[in-house]
């Protein structure tokens, strides 16, 4: 009698949304696969709901990849797994700090070496730079990225920004008279069980090279070209501000709070004032560089690392 495939799920969630996504993706496999869950736990927990200043003060170290530490893993890092599912959220266009802390750890290097890995993202709408960083960490660990699934909030950009900030700062996810619920739409979560079949097939036949094309045929990753341009602009700004703020000290340092406040105010002003301008410039670039952008979209929808 053959042993059941063993899957390790590594994840971090503050709101519980990502765990619900995981449960729906893997739910159909529960009777045929042994699943081990490893929740990443920061040594000093991040608050939820967030205080506004603390939220924005978290940006520099997130963008620079110098995260707060996490507690030792409960899983045996020498245990055998046929597949690792890494589920994470982007923070400030970068992997969340607990995710980055895990991927930079010795435990991750031992767990991931030689393993096929599927990344699963629950995100507002911008995840490209975060996934590029994760690809790099996985490559360094000797893991093989075999699939990517991205669930995003499909509300218009500004609407999703308003609802996610309300959720982050006030803990209110539900719809109001004028706003939809925050986060990934419920139907997107419920229908994510469609990804279980190709994952199960890959676990059985070990033809990992066939998995991502099968996931893509089920719309595992959808990407609008203008988001490539918006992210390129956004990550450049975040890197500048991360360097500018961290020059005045580490997380929570009093000396850097004035710069954090400047960043807070300029970021929000930039989003609400410049978004229409950026949209127009993006449309122009889309027409001028359509072929180049289409190639970029295909790259980001894939699993290859440049």
UniProtKB/TrEMBL annotation:
Q: Kindly give the InterPro entries that the UniProt entry links to this protein.
A: Flavoprotein-like_sf (IPR029039)
Q: Does the keyword Membrane apply?
A: yes
Q: What are the record keywords, sorted?
A: Membrane, Transmembrane, Transmembrane helix
Membrane spanning segments where? 265-284
What is the protein name stated in its UniProt record? Dialkylrecorsinol condensing enzyme
Tell me which species this is from: Chitinophaga flava
